[in-house]
Design goal:
Elements: E1 2-7, E2 11-19, E3 25-32, E4 46-51, E5 57-63, E6 78-83, E7 89-95
Antiparallel strand pairs: 1-2, 2-3, 3-4, 4-5, 5-6, 6-7
Length: 103
């Protein structure tokens, strides 16, 4: 699935979304109008999403054009979530691009 986002004066970028067989969003890649991978202000171009068997988002990872981990606005490159037996989020841990725990 591709969604187009318009910005500035007729410039645009596309996102290519990948979904798994359950219909869950597992990857997004940002492209310019020449189909080249581009990044946002924090150099994030690709985002991977991982879910548990119940469809809860358990991990979110940000990558740059070079496919290396990149931090978002606060330097977080990985978010890891835990859930209780009812599907309520109980914990979120954040890690930097070196996979070191931030908080």
């Amino acid at each position: 699935m591709i969604s187009r986002v318009l910005f500035h004066c007729c410039l645009f970028h596309d996102y290519k979304w990948t979904v798994d067989k359950r219909g869950l969003h597992v990857k997004s890649i940002r492209f310019n109008n020449l189909s080249e991978r581009i990044h946002n202000k924090k150099e994030v171009c690709l985002t991977n999403y991982e879910y548990d068997e119940y469809g809860n988002l358990i991990e979110l990872r940000f990558y740059g054009v070079d496919e290396q981990l990149k931090g978002d606005e606060d330097g977080t490159a990985i978010y890891r979530n835990k859930y209780d037996e009812y599907g309520n989020k109980t914990e979120t841990k954040q890690y930097d691009k070196n996979e070191q725990k931030m908080w």
